[in-house]
């Protein structure tokens, strides 16, 4: 989903706070936050939110991620695939032929940078890393009517072709990105070597909603939370996404995030969600043959853990299921070190053992 919660930066609210605090008298300082007087809490929050109206923390954070990707060795590239479809992808500044290729595919929420920033530096030393924005996220879009994950998969493969990568791809997808990664492995099996699916409810069925598997009671309710347009809905999303969500986030920060990240292509993103659910049956899901690692948060409330076990049963011995303890749906934000540990074990360690002399 989105990277609001981290150990070193639990949410956007804390960006720039020290500098702001130094400009205030001690009695008004955020250094003593939270104050015990509820009127002081309201006053300080209102003062801070007034500042936010003049300065977007979300936009600034987005710029920081761009700089981070660039420093790590990636560059931004936009490709016109024709038929009104444009795909944006972060690509290596230099593609090294001796390295394998790794494609990181994001889920719903912010663009790809927000979801994969913590993983670029440790992965780029071992892989040619490609990070696409899926259609209707970031700078990718289509004017056509297609909204299926199959079409998303086709577009990712086509943009990889445009950059000269036609085989030997390893794919990691989180949440909705895993739906796309799964379809890439099914539709282009000769091009995909390994697959990692993180909290990916690809085995869900339309009837699961009616039978009470999910916290929400209808697809429309799910859409209102997954595509939040109010601070209250954003709080609901955070509560469902994290095992231990941040409790105090002023509405001004949430509204800023919504304004920057959640208002573009709203109808198109809604259509993507509807396409995932409509007429979905497990019997129609092809079995992928590539070695597959399934990673799930123990307390995932968006795609419950039962879907992870269902996917393991569907794929059989070809897949391994790993459960991350005390984690919700947003494992990339909540447990990045544990997630990387499993990625390393599945994707990197076998490469080390395969080197001559090992």
UniProtKB/TrEMBL annotation:
Residues 102-340 form the AB hydrolase-1 domain. Signal peptide: none annotated. InterPro entries: AB_hydrolase_1, AB_hydrolase_fold, Epox_hydrolase-like, Meta-cleavage_hydrolase. One of its GO terms (molecular function) is catalytic activity. It holds the Pfam family Abhydrolase_6. This is AB hydrolase-1 domain-containing protein. It comes from Gossypium raimondii.
């Amino acid at each position: 989903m989105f990277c609001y919660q981290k150990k070193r930066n639990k949410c956007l609210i804390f960006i720039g706070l020290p500098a702001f605090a130094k400009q205030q008298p001690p009695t008004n300082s955020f250094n003593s936050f939270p104050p015990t007087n509820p009127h002081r809490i309201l006053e300080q929050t209102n003062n801070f939110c007034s500042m936010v109206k003049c300065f977007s923390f979300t936009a600034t954070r987005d710029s920081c991620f761009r700089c981070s990707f660039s420093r790590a060795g990636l560059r931004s590239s936009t490709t016109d695939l024709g038929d009104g479809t444009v795909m944006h992808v972060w690509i290596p500044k230099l593609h090294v032929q001796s390295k394998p290729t790794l494609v990181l595919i994001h889920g719903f929420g912010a663009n790809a940078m927000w979801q994969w920033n913590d993983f670029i530096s440790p992965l780029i030393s071992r892989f040619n890393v490609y990070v696409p924005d899926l259609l209707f996220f970031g700078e990718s879009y289509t004017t056509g009517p297609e909204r299926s994950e199959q079409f998303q998969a086709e577009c990712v493969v086509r943009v990889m072709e445009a950059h000269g990568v036609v085989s030997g791809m390893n794919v990691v997808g989180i949440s909705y990105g895993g739906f796309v990664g799964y379809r890439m492995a099914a539709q282009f099996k000769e091009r995909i070597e390994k697959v990692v699916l993180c909290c990916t409810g690809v085995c869900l069925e339309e009837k699961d909603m009616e039978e009470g598997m999910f916290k929400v009671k209808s697809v429309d309710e799910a859409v209102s939370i997954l595509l939040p347009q109010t601070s209250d809905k954003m709080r609901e999303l955070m509560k469902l996404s994290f095992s231990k969500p941040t409790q105090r986030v002023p509405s001004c920060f949430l509204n800023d995030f919504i304004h920057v990240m959640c208002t573009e292509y709203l109808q198109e993103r809604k259509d993507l969600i509807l396409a995932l659910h409509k007429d979905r049956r497990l019997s129609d899901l092809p079995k992928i043959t590539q070695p597959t690692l399934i990673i799930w948060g123990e307390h995932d409330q968006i795609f419950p853990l039962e879907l992870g076990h269902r996917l393991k049963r569907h794929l059989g011995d070809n897949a391994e299921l790993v459960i991350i303890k005390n984690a919700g749906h947003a494992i990339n934000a909540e447990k990045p070190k544990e997630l990387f540990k499993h990625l390393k074990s599945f994707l990197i360690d076998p490469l080390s053992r395969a080197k001559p002399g090992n």
